[in-house]
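User: For documentation purposes, I need each entry recorded in a consistent format: the amino acid sequence on its own, followed directly by the corresponding structure tokens. There are two entries in this batch. Please keep commentary to a minimum and don't merge the entries.

Assistant: Recorded as requested. Entry 1:
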Amino acid sequence: MQVYGIDVIIRITSHLAFIYLTFWSLKALRLDILFRSLQTPQIRTLMVLLSITIGYTASSFFLELIALSKNLFLSGI
């Protein structure tokens, strides 16, 4: 899939939105229970890295799903 102009803006926006949504969702988990006390920088770092990983993967899935749907309708089936 070639990406130009407005598609780049949509992809960046989608990735950032899914990363934020994942970070927001992960805040509901009590990850601090799994770690020793006074380890808050490590917990926050883990949450950010998990948010990036899960958010990027979910965003890529939905963008690929949209691209496949668009290709399906354009092929005339």
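Entry 2:
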Amino acid sequence: MPDRPVPDADELARLRARVAALEAERGAHRRRHRARSFLAVLLVVLGCALAPLGVLAAWSARTVGDTDRYVDTVAPLAAEPAVRSAAATRVTDALMPHLDLDALLAGAAPADRPRLRQALGGLGGALEGAVRAYVHDEAEAVMASRAFQTFWTDANRRIHATVEKALTGHGGGAVHLRDNTVTIDLAPVIDQVKKRLVDSGLTVAQRIPAVHTDFTVAHSDDIGRARTYLRLLQLAGNWLPVIAVLLVAAGVLLAARRRRALVAGALGIAVTTLLLGIALTVFRSFYLDALPAGVSRPAAGAVYDTLTRFLRTTVRMVVALGVVVALAAWLTGPGRYASAVRRLWHAGLGAVRATAGRLGLRTGPVGPFTRRHRRWLTWALVAAAVLAYLLWNRPTGWVVVGLTLTLLFALAVVDFFAAGGEGVEGEVGEG
């Protein structure tokens, strides 16, 4: 056996240098890969952390900063029984000190005394309790009238600038921020109640001067700090959610495994936004427990629920959207379970197609056209679903679910017509 040539010293040096260069290149590649992966993770985490703040910023900009949206938000409060009852009680408490009960019957006009005695006598009890119940009933009648709903809507439209002042430090009007409490003056409502009392025979109510009383809309010991935070969120407006999405998208593009990064980013946004929804529920209990004496808890709860209604709707929508995107990314991936789900999908469509073939149904020219343009049709349907979501006014979680189910049905129809070229053409002929 011939002897192998022994490399000389120069050749060994070149080989060692080449190996060292390859090792250095591989090490640099690993370092770049780790740095890129770290940056991708950092961007996804930042985007997920900013997602709930983006939801808050969008709600602040649209609800607090937009008069029409604010009015639409608070208008249902006029029909809330707890708010009506609390406002009626507040009005009654403001009117009672101005009614001279001792001279009530003596001061009434002779023609009005029978009607007044009948009204008060039916209530029973002491005179003060009877008058109070009577005034409260008249106040509740005003609260239940369409006039009060109109007053509530118009007043909130006029005082929107002051609500903004209470929450952001700008504006002015009939809403006031005193001692960490946002209040509304019910003087116009008291005037309506006084008119009803006079019309019903309680003419002593004519002597009541102009009465101003405050109805508490919101209270917090940290409202000054919340005002600062809310102002910052307002300034961020609709840009913050866009920035959050862009950060997650950038992280996905930088990641080595983009599909897995997309699943993680979508689920991360859903989880952090869900935590915001949980925080809103928990804060509600703390908020109601911290209310001062004399403030109706049911009314305050109704106000809180109404003001955060669209915020909660947005939370549910973002959670649903994040779950849908994560599922879509996972189902289109190469994983074993995802592949099994896709096989079940196609098997089900094949069974439907076979049944249609036995019934004599034909796809005609639609089948070949769908097979040729299947990819374009699929992307067109996805784009249509995304466009419908973007153009939807105030999308909700159910809107996301509905659009997803509609898209799945449309994709199933495309797969049904396009399946003829995948071994089931004999079941349903092209005719």
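Summary note for entry 2:
Confidence is low (pLDDT under 50) at residues 169-174, 421-431.
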